[in-house]
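Give me the fold.
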Amino acid sequence: MALAGRRDAPLMLRGGGKPLSRGSRIAVAVAVGVALGCVFAFLYPDGLFFRPSASALQWPLHVDSTACESSERVTNLKSQLASLERKNAELSKQINELSMKLQSDGQRKDETLYKAGPLGTVKALRTNPTVIPDETVNPRLAKILEDVAVKKELIVALANSNVREMLEVWFTNIKRVGIPNYLVVALDDNIESFCKSKGVPVYRRDPDDGVDNIAKTGGNHAVSGLKFRVLREFLQLGYSILLSDIDIILLRNPFDHLYRDSDVESMSDGHNKMTAYGFNDVFDEPSMGWARYAHTMRIWVYNSGFFYIRPTIPSIELLDRVAGRLSREKAWDQAVFNEELFFPSHPGYEGLHASRRTMDIYLFMNSKVLFKSVRKDAQLKKLKPVIVHLNYHPDKLDRMKAVIEFYVNGKQDALMHFPDGSE
């Protein structure tokens, strides 16, 4: 009975001593439980029986391991980065080639987008779009061109030690005229050092056995053929180039006298307007009787020693064609240059689809025009050409100096003692 009495005894008494009812006791128990739960939740937010995760337990060990292996990981990362850079360069090259192909294809497709206008109003497009510049082709050259070029244009000349004296006359006159955007491509160490000592912008290509052997020992024609290989990178980088041989006297800034409406704009070897700009030449074959006269169209060749070339698909194709033929054939670069520019498509051969312009023969003057005609004509002598190219004569240096005496120093008889030709 006593035990039973204890079981039923009240847990807590009210102020008046009366025992709590069963419902009140439950309410008190719940309240106490909630209060204790809040306390434990505050003191042990992760629970009384919290067990750290495996990752948390291993973290200090992981940090120590990383610290120990950091050098090896950096090496691996550098190797991976170099590999990715190489892949990126390859992809960029492929993208550029595809872009060039798309541009070429697009030009053909665009022909269907135009409708012919009224009689006498139709004029075809002459200027091909420029290529997308690709600096991955030659980052070092890209940096040099960025500093030297003006409006993405510059004069470029190739030179080795065989022509050092003429080279100095060449760049001295460029400086005198005040032309800032020019660059010498040095084909040997001596010319590179010489240009640097004279404050002349110079670029020395990376070693290339296929080019260097010719560059160091080759004569004028051999070195001249190299320019078609060298210029390709300039065009791929998006620059228009005015290629100049060094037997040229620049008297005015040539960039002020270009049209820029064609892929190639070149000086002519013609000695008058007819030979330079083209004429109808009648071929006579008496044995044909009534049909003895055959009409032909003739033009004297472009001079491959001075031409302006824009960075277009046809221009790059021209350089590739000429360089390819010169590597396979024993040929004169100027002859190949003109054949690729002018020969039309015919059975077994696809002609080059490049636009071209002939420069004014009295502004961009060859030495035959000067010594055969201009120096003997009172009116023509008053004209001041942009350049004079001593391409027709072997005594180049003497005639270059005489041109300076006549056009720069005003010595009126400076040209008169030379023969017309090379006799």
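The chain has a mean pLDDT of 84.
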